[in-house]
């Protein structure tokens, strides 16, 4: 669905994207992460046909973004970072404008507008002027506009910024639904740990390069420390976590113990037998263990790890 | 039954951007505020003219109603040409600034549909306000018995003028860095087009005058109005809606207006169309710029040709010149025509060269793309390619226009008895080529910012110094020498020297080089031309070296990248 080959983008003497090749299949949700200035937005703008790369090719749903621009654009739903709207229009008028611009038949336009408003939970604001919406609502309105013409590929630049936790959960559900419908989603976000909950693949950009790309679990596993695994221990009782942490700090093979609410997380050197042995020791020492298991490494950890590797 | 689908299709053909304009700018609260203000002002102006004239028994109701028409037309012009132009420029600039134009770019609407959408959608409120003034206009027409055909004729040209202004504003909005500068640029363009450039019609160059509705208004409407209003038209030198002399023929003013405005609209449309396809491309392609230059040269030459070859046209311009600037003899008119043509075409040349010459970044990108595709040259048509061939083409056209004007003047007995000396002609040609090459070389070598600031300093400082020496010390020779870097001085000396080298009839002994310069005039013309030719070639050398260095650097970078990959 998305395929790039040797994409390069220059701004004066700065190379924003450096010979980047990437393939994202149908139904995939690919999270694009990286520090500011890594080239994420430049890449998304190239894929959205809004910026001509210095060289390289990109295909969206089989259409070349330089040769078959019109067809590629029909297949793309693009949501930019700042998500501007026409403030003087009502929400339904804003969506109706783009429904008409995307040549949706007039008889289905009203229904479609109502559908997308419902999908982003903005039905109650359909008659509100767009300039009166909050930042999060504006984001949702633009997301609704992006979905209007049922694009096969969604390019979302920071769609979750400004969304409240409930709206983020809705967005996550929506993206999963879109993925289940076979649509491809490329999403850049700074809310990294959320990406790991719904992305099927991940790409990490660093100074214009795609340094890591692949299935999210495979990438996390590939970059996890081979000798030390991180575990999470949840205990019951108010003083439980502190006393458990004190015990853990004295246990052999355990390092980097951190307490977070009723949980402790720590690195443990060794295999599963070592983990079983440690659990036994904790129970015997009277620690009220509620849960014990491997700690899932978030995307944030991964970015830090990969970023550090790049820097070194 | 069959009508319904076709009606639906027709409704779907309505441009979404017009609907957006209506919804965003013509809500009831807008109508109540802006609409009431417009109606009040228009009614007041109509009533004060009409009732004063009738109650004071200054005129009959029919004549008084006729006198109301200009007032309503002025209000309509303010609404559509000033407020509407501002709305287009600031509207499109704001959308570009916010990123809303990107949304529109992503839709499958054709660029032409988008341009038409913005052209009529952004000033939708102004069109509605215009409609609100129509009842007053209709009342004035009914009472006065004013010719409806004349009015329709007038409004056809009125609306093409409005389109010219709105397209200009669309270009301003799409190229300016922010809404504020877009608004300033569009106002500046309106002032330039409306108040500055039409003044060239005094020497017969009517091209810019007919971009406005002035000739149509004064020629078509005013002549049907009461005597006092006709005086205004007469004082403007436009008291007849007569045919426009153009080359060897005479065009109906409406045809000429549509030709001139059609040309400008086509150019503006091409610019906006290119910008819709790509936000970062040059405003015009190399060949497009050459065509624009040729088009402007064609229209200017058409007027100059007619003045030099048609007795009536010649008489009309000279009679105007004699009252305007005291020029009584024909050779001075040739000098004025040559100077004006060189000035206008020179300014257009500088503007077009600035637009089509690629910046360093664009050239580097072009080379990178070319290397990646295994090419060793940049295509002539690409934005990254050098603009020297197009610049040379424009200079050739400019020289050809000058040669034709001098040739026509030499052929007609009233101007020269014998043609100017070839040496003097070559001096002028060298000055024009030198200045042209210099301008292009500086633009290509140093980029836009240095080009603008550098040229201002390089040209204006000598010009100011020259003026100070003239005014304070009356040092004409030294002052002119100091002012030579300012192209109008060098080229002006070239023109004067050229015309001084021609022989005139016994009753005509004009002298174009100032008397105070004496024999130094010709020498300064040679020095200026030679100096600019050398400077122009040096600037071209620098630009060429810079171009080659960039190509070499890019080749080396590509080779290093290949080596790294292989390693």
Number of strands of chain B: 2
Class inferred from helices and paired strands of chain A:
alpha/beta
Helix content of chain B: over 70%
Number of domains of chain A: 2
The percentage of residues in β strands of chain A lies in 25-35%
Please identify which CATH superfamily of the largest domain in chain A we are dealing with.
Answer: P-loop containing nucleotide triphosphate hydrolases
CATH topology of the largest domain in chain A: Rossmann fold
What kind of oligomer do you see? heterodimer
**Average predicted local confidence, pLDDT of chain B:** 86
What's the average pLDDT of chain A? Answer: 86
Low-confidence stretches of chain A: none
- Separate helix tally of chain B: 21
The largest β sheet of chain B comes out as: 2 strands, antiparallel
Question: Roughly how many Å apart are the termini of chain A?
Answer: 34 Å
Q: Give the low-pLDDT segments of chain B.
A: 7-12, 325-329
Question: Based on DSSP secondary structure assignment, what is the total number of beta strands of chain A?
Answer: 14
Widest sheet: strand ordering of chain A = 6-7-8-3-9-10
């Amino acid at each position: 669905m998305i395929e790039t080959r040797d994409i390069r983008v220059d701004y004066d003497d700065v190379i924003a994207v450096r010979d980047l090749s990437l393939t994202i299949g149908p139904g995939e949700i690919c999270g694009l992460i990286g520090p500011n200035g890594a080239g994420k937005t430049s890449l998304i703008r190239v894929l959205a046909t809004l910026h001509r790369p210095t060289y390289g090719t990109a295909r969206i749903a089989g259409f070349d973004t330089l040769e078959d621009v019109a067809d590629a654009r029909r297949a793309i739903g693009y949501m930019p970072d700042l998500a501007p709207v026409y403030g003087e229009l009502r929400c339904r008028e804003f969506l109706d404008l783009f429904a008409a611009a995307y040549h949706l038949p007039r008889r289905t336009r009203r229904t479609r507008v109502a559908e997308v408003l419902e999908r982003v939970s903005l039905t109650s604001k359909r008659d509100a002027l767009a300039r009166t919406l909050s930042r999060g609502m504006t984001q949702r309105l633009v997301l609704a506009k992006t979905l209007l013409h049922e694009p096969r590929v969604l390019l979302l630049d920071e769609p979750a910024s400004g969304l409240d936790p409930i709206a983020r959960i809705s967005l996550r559900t929506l993206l999963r639904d879109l993925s289940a419908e076979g649509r491809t989603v490329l999403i850049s976000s700074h809310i990294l740990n959320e990406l790991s909950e719904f992305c099927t693949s991940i790409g990490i950009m660093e100074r214009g390069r795609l340094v890591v790309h692949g299935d999210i679990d495979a990438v996390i596993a590939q970059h996890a420390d081979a000798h030390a695994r991180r575990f999470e221990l949840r205990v019951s009782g108010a003083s439980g976590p502190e006393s458990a942490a004190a015990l853990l700090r004295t246990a052999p093979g355990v390092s980097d113990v951190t307490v977070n609410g009723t949980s402790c997380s720590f690195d443990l050197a060794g295999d599963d037998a070592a983990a079983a042995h440690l659990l036994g020791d904790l129970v015997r020492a009277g620690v009220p263990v509620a849960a014990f298991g491997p700690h899932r490494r978030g995307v944030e950890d991964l970015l830090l790890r990969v970023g550090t590797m790049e820097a070194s | 039954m069959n009508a319904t689908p076709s009606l639906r299709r027709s409704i779907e053909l309505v441009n979404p951007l017009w609907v957006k304009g209506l919804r965003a700018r013509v809500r009831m609260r807008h109508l109540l505020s802006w609409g009431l203000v417009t109606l009040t002002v228009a009614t007041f102006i109509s009533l004060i003219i009409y009732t004063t004239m009738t109650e004071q028994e200054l005129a009959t109701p029919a004549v008084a109603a006729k006198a109301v028409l200009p007032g309503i037309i002025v209000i309509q012009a303010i609404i559509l040409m000033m407020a509407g132009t501002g709305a287009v420029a600031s509207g499109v600039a704001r959308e570009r600034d916010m990123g809303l134009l990107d949304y529109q770019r992503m839709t499958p609407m054709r660029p032409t549909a988008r341009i038409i959408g913005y052209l009529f959608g952004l000033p939708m409120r102004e069109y509605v306000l215009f409609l609100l003034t129509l009842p007053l206009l209709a009342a004035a027409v009914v009472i006065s018995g004013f010719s409806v055909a004349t009015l329709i004729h007038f409004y056809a040209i009125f609306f093409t003028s409005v389109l010219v202004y709105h397209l200009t504003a669309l270009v301003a909005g799409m190229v300016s860095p922010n809404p504020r500068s877009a608004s300033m640029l569009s106002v500046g363009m309106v002032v330039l087009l409306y108040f500055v450039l039409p003044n060239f019609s005094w020497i017969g160059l009517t091209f810019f005058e007919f971009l406005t509705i002035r000739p149509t208004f004064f020629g078509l409407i005013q002549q049907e109005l009461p005597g006092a209003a006709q005086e205004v038209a007469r004082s403007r030198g436009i008291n007849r809606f007569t045919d426009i002399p153009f080359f060897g023929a005479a065009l109906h003013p409406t045809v000429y207006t549509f030709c001139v405005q059609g040309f400008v609209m086509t150019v503006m449309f091409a610019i906006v169309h290119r910008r819709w396809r790509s936000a970062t491309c040059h405003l015009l392609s190399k060949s497009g710029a050459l065509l624009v230059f040729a088009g402007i040269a064609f229209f200017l030459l058409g007027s100059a040709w007619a003045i030099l070859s048609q007795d009536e046209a010649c008489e009309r311009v000279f009679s105007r010149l004699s009252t305007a600037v005291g020029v009584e003899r024909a050779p001075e008119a040739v000098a004025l025509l040559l100077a004006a043509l060189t000035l206008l075409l020179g300014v257009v040349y500088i503007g077009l060269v600035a637009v089509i010459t690629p910046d360093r970044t664009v050239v580097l990108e072009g080379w990178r793309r070319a290397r990646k595709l295994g090419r060793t040259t940049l295509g002539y048509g690409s934005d990254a390619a050098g603009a020297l061939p197009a610049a040379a083409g424009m200079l050739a056209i400019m020289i050809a226009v000058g040669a034709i004007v001098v040739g026509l003047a030499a052929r007609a007995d009233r101007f020269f008895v014998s043609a100017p000396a070839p040496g003097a002609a070559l001096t002028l040609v060298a000055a024009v080529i030198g200045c042209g090459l210099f301008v292009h070389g500086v633009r290509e070598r140093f980029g836009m910012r240095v080009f603008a600031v550098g040229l201002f300093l390089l040209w204006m400082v000598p010009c100011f110094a020259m003026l100070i020496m003239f005014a304070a010390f009356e040092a004409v020779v030294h002052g002119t020498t100091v002012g030579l870097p300012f192209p109008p001085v060098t080229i002006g000396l070239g023109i004067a020297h050229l015309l001084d080298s021609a022989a005139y009839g016994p009753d005509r002994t004009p002298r174009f080089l100032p008397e105070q310069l004496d024999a130094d005039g010709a020498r300064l013309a040679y020095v200026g031309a030679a100096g600019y030719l050398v400077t122009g070639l040096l600037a071209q050398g620098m630009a060429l070296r810079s171009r080659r260095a960039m190509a070499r650097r890019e080749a080396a970078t590509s080779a290093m990248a290949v080596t790294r990959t292989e390693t």
